[in-house]
Specification:
This protein has 203 residues and is mostly helical. It is 58% helix and 6% strand. A three-stranded antiparallel β-sheet has the order 1-3-2. Helix 2 (48-72) packs antiparallel against helix 6 (138-162), helix 3 packs across helix 5 (104-116) and helix 3 (76-87) packs across helix 6 (138-162). 12% of the residues are buried.
Length: 203
């Protein structure tokens, strides 16, 4: 097991419903004790403007595909599975669990629905028959691309309004928001998805 794997946070109980409180939460319980320390280690006030902009940007970023997903009775967990399986054909369940950081029980429920409704296909691995390799069916790929299309339009519009020269700084900022020990894996994942898309475009 790598050092990164040992320090990863535990999976969340269920990413299909992000509005559920964390396990152990009680509205009657006191707020988390921060030991009397400032939220910022350097004593500066939190960057509330950026915190709230991230909240509202994410709210609207996911609202676009949410409206499409509702047509199918799907939620955000279905979207994430479709997205990463489409971007990385042959992804294993273990790899998907590592990307999404949800419980195996939650993933199995979402996968069962996507497989039964014909959006995801699975096959046994050739080198290790214990592995189940996941791919999108043509129907699943079409839905994944429809969802990515609406989010891509929002990103393009934002870059046009803010200035196309901000794409690289925006990428660096978002990468810096990720835990340092995870950044290399995220870069590899993104690069792998780009390579798979280029290969599909050539075929």
């Amino acid at each position: 097991m790598t050092q990164a794997a040992r320090t990863r946070p535990a999976p969340i109980p269920d990413a299909a419903n992000e509005d559920l409180p964390e396990v152990g939460y009680s509205p009657d319980a006191p707020a988390q004790d921060l030991g009397g320390q400032d939220l910022s280690e350097d004593g500066e006030a939190p960057a509330y403007d950026l915190i709230e902009l991230l909240f509202f940007a994410y709210r609207d970023f996911v609202a676009d595909p949410d409206r499409i997903l509702a047509e199918y009775g799907f939620g955000r967990a279905h979207h994430r599975v479709l997205h990463f399986v489409d971007r990385h054909p042959g992804l294993t369940i273990a790899e998907l669990l590592d990307i999404l950081r949800i419980t195996k029980q939650s993933l199995n429920r979402v996968l069962k629905e996507l497989i039964e409704q014909g959006y995801i296909a699975q096959r046994t691995g050739t080198s290790d028959r214990r592995h189940r390799l996941l791919t999108c069916t043509p129907q699943g790929r079409q839905l994944a691309h429809r969802l990515a299309g609406v989010q891509g339009r929002r990103v393009r519009r934002a870059l046009e309004e803010a200035g196309s020269g901000l794409r690289e700084p925006a990428s660096r900022f978002l990468l810096a928001m990720i835990e340092p020990e995870e950044r290399a894996a995220v870069r590899r994942l993104i690069a792998g998805g780009e390579a798979a898309a280029e290969s599909e475009a050539r075929s």
